[in-house]
Amino acid sequence: MINKVSSQDSLVVLTEGAIIAALAMGLSYIPHSTGISSIQVVYGLIPMSVYALRRGVKAGLLAGLAWGLLDMFLRGLGGGVLNPLQGFVEYPLAFGVVGLIGLGSVSVQRAVRNGKNAIGLIIFYSAIGFFAKYFCHFLAGGIYWGSYAPKGMNPWIYSLVVNGGSFIANMIMLVVLAFLLNRIFKQLVIPRN
């Protein structure tokens, strides 16, 4: 009986992860440019953050990997993939490491259950996942996209500006939403099963 319950729980977690990956992918189609060249707000990071905090690092990594593969096949192969290694770094790897947010699932859930303010923890652990994602993009930018840097500009500096700017823009979005959603954290991050 224990194995049956465990496999049912696993199925729920995997199904939830598939839905979150699909939602994150769907949100990718909403225009998300900040007006500054190449700096983008990625709305799918929010449901992915909630999922990773709800289900933990392993589930978060798997859902992020699924999101990255979806994004690579649905959008990246149309011009965002220069070669297989760059494609791997910027899609499955970069999107997958967003799941590192799940490192904070136990701490955040404990704080929420005890009625404590979890905003600081949510921001901290989300910053880990967001930073890991944009670090992958930074590396790929410096190595593979350097020819797109403005003439005379160091490609590493250009990659730092673009990917660092995207990291900051997404952290601002997260902070604003964390404060707006503060009252419903319990329903978002505490699984019922």
Oligomer type: single chain
Gross CATH architecture? Orthogonal Bundle
Order of helices and strands: HHHHHHHH
Count of extended strands: 0
* Radius of gyration, whole Å: 17 Å
Q: What can be said about the biggest beta sheet? A: none
Mean pLDDT: 91
CATH topology: Arp2/3 complex 21 kDa subunit ARPC3
Shape: globular
- Strand proportion: under 5%
Overall tally of structural domains: 1
- Helix share, percent: 55-70%
CATH class: Mainly Alpha
The end-to-end span amounts to 16 Å
Enumerate how many helices there are, as a single number.
Answer: 8
Q: Helix/strand-derived class?
A: mainly alpha
Low-pLDDT runs? 1-5
GO molecular function: thiamine transmembrane transporter activity
Protein name: Energy-coupled thiamine transporter ThiT
Keywords: Membrane, Transmembrane, Transmembrane helix
GO cellular component, one term: plasma membrane
Describe the SSE topology.
Blueprint: H1 2-27, H2 45-55, H3 57-74, H4 84-96, H5 105-113, H6 119-144, H7 155-180, H8 185-189
Describe the structure in your own words.
This protein has 193 residues and is mainly alpha-helical. It has one domain: Arp2/3 complex 21 kDa subunit ARPC3 (Orthogonal Bundle), CATH 1.10.1760.20. It contains eight helices and no strands. The radius of gyration is 17 Å and the shape is globular. This is Energy-coupled thiamine transporter ThiT.
